[in-house]
Amino acid sequence: MKSWALVVLLCLGYGLLTSSLQARPMWSNLILTHHWPSTFCSVQHCHSTFDYWTLHGLWPNLGQECNSSWHFNETLIQDLLPDMNKSWPDLKKPGSSKFWKYEWQKHGTCAAKAESLNSQHKYFDKALELYHKLDLDGVLKSVNIVPSETYYMFDHIEGKGENFQILGQIEICFNSDFQLDDCVHDETDTVTLTDFLNVKGTGFRVCDHSKPVYYPPLKGKPSM
């Protein structure tokens, strides 16, 4: 994990931060965002059968909902659907395209300012490509970080109460050439790092380095 340029962990149990939005030019970084189904569904009251990290989105550091007239069209990504349903599922409604529509309208239309991502197919295909290339599940398992009823110290992951936090999301930064990068977000960014790290209404926030981390197994499945 320590070889990656920027790895940000999200945990449950803290308040939300807000950021202001304003018109800004072309983005400079992308955040490939993964979420852990067990933690997500504990908040959203869903039941997941996915026992691996799934895609949440590919988010440019500048802009949201950049083109409201550019509507999502599932027929344009028909060849990607088998992988989309497996790697980028709607955890609340598996098999639904509602989540992809939301991600395209909010983030994809802004990512599309770059020629390399200027179509729905390019956007979703690139997100899947980066997801598989990183293989977050494989990287974590290679250093013996697996879902468990025991707690991890934060540093172990980086390289039910007030005294621990629940791992829910991991975000990794890329530059415009899709190379791993150290993201530097300042106060003038339209979407700040804290905005990436807080899923509205969930209580997610950047993990506290000083507290143990709970990486929950899939409910009903024995920990590894």
Automatic annotation (TrEMBL):
<dbReference type="GO" id="GO:0005576">
    <property type="term" value="C:extracellular region"/>
</dbReference>
<dbReference type="InterPro" id="IPR036430">
    <property type="entry name" value="RNase_T2-like_sf"/>
</dbReference>
<keyword id="KW-0732">Signal</keyword>
<feature type="active site">
    <location>
        <position position="56"/>
    </location>
</feature>
<feature type="active site">
    <location>
        <position position="107"/>
    </location>
</feature>
<dbReference type="InterPro" id="IPR033130">
    <property type="entry name" value="RNase_T2_His_AS_2"/>
</dbReference>
<dbReference type="GO" id="GO:0006401">
    <property type="term" value="P:RNA catabolic process"/>
</dbReference>
<keyword id="KW-1015">Disulfide bond</keyword>
<feature type="signal peptide">
    <location>
        <begin position="1"/>
        <end position="23"/>
    </location>
</feature>
<feature type="active site">
    <location>
        <position position="103"/>
    </location>
</feature>
<dbReference type="InterPro" id="IPR018188">
    <property type="entry name" value="RNase_T2_His_AS_1"/>
</dbReference>
<comment type="similarity">
    <text>Belongs to the RNase T2 family.</text>
</comment>
<dbReference type="InterPro" id="IPR033697">
    <property type="entry name" value="Ribonuclease_T2_eukaryotic"/>
</dbReference>
<protein>
    <submittedName>
        <fullName>Uncharacterized protein</fullName>
    </submittedName>
</protein>
<dbReference type="GO" id="GO:0003723">
    <property type="term" value="F:RNA binding"/>
</dbReference>
<dbReference type="InterPro" id="IPR001568">
    <property type="entry name" value="RNase_T2-like"/>
</dbReference>
<dbReference type="GO" id="GO:0043202">
    <property type="term" value="C:lysosomal lumen"/>
</dbReference>
<dbReference type="GO" id="GO:0033897">
    <property type="term" value="F:ribonuclease T2 activity"/>
</dbReference>
<dbReference type="Pfam" id="PF00445">
    <property type="entry name" value="Ribonuclease_T2"/>
</dbReference>
